[in-house]
Design a protein that fits this description.
alpha+beta; OB fold (Dihydrolipoamide Acetyltransferase, E2P); six-stranded mixed β-sheet; four-stranded antiparallel β-sheet; 20 strands; globular
Length: 339
């Protein structure tokens, strides 16, 4: 008998929500069939069966599960009728057990639960229906940011360094590159390329801290913050040092389109070992990013305040990187960007 266990999908979440079963209990499935939808902090992921046979659910929809937890078994037994699950009327949201118990206790109807306008109703959602202080549930993506910030501040002793850079030449190169590669090229693309080019000389800036060891990465996978009004996402440009500027620009363009709709897969958002944070709006001249869990550094890129000079900051995990090394890294980055 085969087992379907919840895989580890990212480094930011300790547990994921089993949103729904795509295949009823007792149904024959094939190895590649998508059988369940799991929601992480930033994306919904379909899980394949992984084996052929009769699927038997071990966990109900609306349950929070940890990586490695058993979700279902897949055996050779004959198919059986699907089991019913409790929820709101057909077409309504899934209701977690604590939420349903709280709703029953306070006489809240299934129609009221459906009126909340969420796919999965949790106890906090039901509490909003009761009289009391005004509440606003944070969007899913912002809840992910909150968890990442909290974890970062609890576990990463970060330091910060700011360097002035003349971005005039870089912006001219970006204009020329945009015409040449027929893709939008700006500060994001140039800094991704420049940072990735320092991977071999400064491997600790792309490492992860683990006790008395630094886990080095083979290639630079550069995360880039994108916020187009639908929440903050950090998609990844993988093996950025091995990509020409046109490929970097194409990848970031696809990520921007996905950010506008929130249509990311977990694979798009996982695996960064260095993060470039963009703060190029309005009159922002200085930004201090948090170091994302699982990485050692976050580079804050601001727009030039006078058309040329900008303050570019590096937040770094002081357990891996010391001040002198940070200064050398930023000096090399400055030379690469200013050209």
């Amino acid at each position: 008998m085969a087992e379907l266990r919840l895989p580890k999908l990212n480094n930011n979440d300790a547990e994921y929500l089993l949103v729904e079963w795509l295949v009823p209990d007792g149904t024959p499935v094939h190895e590649d069939d998508a059988v369940a939808v799991v929601e992480t902090s930033k994306a919904a992921e379909e899980l394949p069966a992984g084996a052929g046979g009769t699927l038997r659910h071990a966990v109900k929809p609306g349950t929070w599960c940890r990586p490695g937890e058993l979700l279902a078994t897949i055996g050779d037994e004959p198919a059986a009728p699907a089991q019913e699950t409790r929820g709101t009327p057909q077409g309504g949201p899934l209701v977690t057990a604590p939420a349903q118990a709280f709703a029953d206790e306070h006489g809240i109807t299934p129609e009221q639960l459906a009126g909340l306008g969420v796919d999965v109703v949790r106890r906090a959602d039901v509490e909003r229906l009761l009289d009391g202080p005004a509440r606003r549930e944070l969007p899913r993506v912002q809840r992910a940011v909150a968890r990442a910030v909290e974890l970062s501040h609890q576990s990463i002793p970060a330091a910060y360094l700011v360097v002035r850079m003349d971005l005039g030449p870089a912006l001219k190169r970006a204009e020329a590159a945009t015409r040449e590669v027929r893709r939008p090229v700006g500060l994001a693309e140039l800094f991704v390329q420049a940072v990735a080019g320092l991977h071999e000389r400064h491997p600790l800036f792309f490492a992860a801290y683990e006790g008395t060891h630094a886990l080095l990465s083979d290639v630079p996978n550069i995360g880039v913050t994108l916020d187009v009004g639908e929440g903050l996402y950090v998609p990844v440009v993988r093996d950025a040092a091995g990509r020409p500027l046109k490929e970097i620009a194409t990848t970031l363009m696809k990520h921007r389109l996905a950010a506008a709709s929130g249509d990311f897969k977990e694979a798009d958002l996982a695996g960064a070992n260095f993060v470039v944070t963009l703060h190029t709006e309005g009159d922002v001249v200085l930004a201090v990013p948090f170091v994302f869990p699982g990485t050692a550094c976050a580079l804050a890129v601001t727009a030039p305040s006078d058309g040329t000079v900008a303050h570019i900051g590096l937040a770094y995990d002081h357990r891996l990187v010391n001040g002198r090394d940070a200064a050398l890294f930023m000096a090399a980055l400055k030379a690469a960007v200013e050209g």
